[in-house]
């Protein structure tokens, strides 16, 4: 391979053709589909997606060298954008129902996921998201309540997305080999979800709770509310519980109480 992966961009190219085919098959692409790929890299997944003949295919690649290579190879079939995905304006794609694929750079994967959750039109922009994460991050995304990995990322994801881990993928399937396992996660945007005036209120509440992860919930509640006892009674909370014992719906209710108080 004549491309030198850039560590600064978290580039690890998936090589295993069987896994690539499995990933693309998950998208159930038809000739009516609008497909988008983040970080196509050397185009291994891109080639497999094109076999499905989607109606429209957009790929976002930040690396200028890879962008030029991809443009030479796929120019007629793919709309290529040489952009930083963290600065991308997703609101321009509402009502597109995009099937999104991405082997996400580990250093920005959590931030990207939260950026998507913040989108007011998330369920109009995407029909499904099929994304690769570091295994440790994926395990946090799909963690069960009462488990050690359950936390802010789980709750923020569950607010607007159904998430399911599809498979773990060993380092040997990438070039260069990452030091950790990767995991493929399938997301489906929810049509109905808890309504907040500002998603940052949910983020703040979960942040305060999980900064005090080992403390009983009375401590974070006292930080958020002057009348925490009334909140405890109203929401029928158990004082002896810790943050990981509260399901996502309870966090949504607490966050709504907090939002109503500050507005």
What does this protein look like?
- By secondary structure, the protein is α/β, with parallel strands linked by helices.
- The chain has two domains: 181 residues, Rossmann fold (3-Layer(aba) Sandwich); 64 residues, Helicase, Ruva Protein, domain 3 (Orthogonal Bundle), CATH 1.10.8.
- It is built from eleven helices and nine strands.
- The strands form two sheets. A seven-stranded mixed beta sheet has the order 4-3-2-5-6-9-7.
- Strand 2, helix 2 and strand 3 form a beta-alpha-beta unit.
- The longest helix is centred in the last third of the chain and has 15 residues.
- About 3% of the residues have low confidence.
Task: Kindly summarize this structure in a few lines.
This protein has helices spanning 17-26, 44-51, 64-74, 109-118, 122-125, 135-141, 152-160, 199-211, 218-224, 228-234, 248-262; strands at residues 13-14, 34-38, 56-60, 79-81, 98-103, 126-134, 161-169, 174-175, 182-189.
SSE topology sketch:
Layout: E1 13-14, H1 17-26, E2 34-38, H2 44-51, E3 56-60, H3 64-74, E4 79-81, E5 98-103, H4 109-118, H5 122-125, E6 126-134, H6 135-141, H7 152-160, E7 161-169, E8 174-175, E9 182-189, H8 199-211, H9 218-224, H10 228-234, H11 248-262
Features:
38% helix, Rossmann fold, alpha/beta, 7-stranded mixed beta sheet, 2 domains, Helicase, Ruva Protein, domain 3, 263 residues
């Amino acid at each position: 391979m004549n491309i030198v992966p850039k560590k600064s961009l978290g580039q690890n190219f998936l090589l295993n053709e069987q896994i690539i085919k499995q990933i693309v098959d998950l998208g159930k692409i038809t000739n009516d589909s609008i497909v988008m790929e983040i970080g196509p890299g050397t185009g291994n997944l891109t080639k497999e997606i094109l076999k499905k003949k989607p109606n429209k295919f957009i790929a976002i690649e930040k690396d200028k060298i890879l962008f030029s290579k991809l443009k030479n190879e796929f120019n007629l079939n793919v709309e290529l954008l040489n952009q930083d995905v963290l600065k991308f304006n997703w609101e321009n794609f509402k009502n597109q129902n995009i099937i999104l694929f991405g082997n996400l750079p580990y250093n920005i994967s959590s931030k990207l996921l939260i950026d998507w959750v913040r989108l007011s039109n998330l369920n109009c922009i995407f029909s499904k998201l099929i994304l690769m994460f570091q295994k440790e991050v994926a395990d946090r995304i799909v963690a069960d309540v009462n488990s050690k990995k359950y936390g802010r990322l789980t709750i923020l994801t569950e607010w607007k997305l159904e998430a399911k881990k599809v498979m773990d993928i060993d380092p040997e399937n990438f070039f260069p080999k990452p030091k950790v396992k990767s995991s493929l996660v399938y997301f489906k945007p929810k049509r109905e979800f808890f309504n907040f005036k500002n998603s940052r209120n949910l983020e703040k509440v979960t942040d305060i709770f999980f900064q005090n992860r080992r403390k009983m919930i009375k401590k974070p509640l006292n930080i958020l509310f002057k009348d925490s006892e009334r909140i405890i009674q109203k929401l029928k909370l158990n004082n002896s519980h810790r943050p990981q014992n509260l399901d996502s719906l309870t966090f949504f209710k607490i966050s709504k109480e907090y939002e109503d108080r500050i507005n």
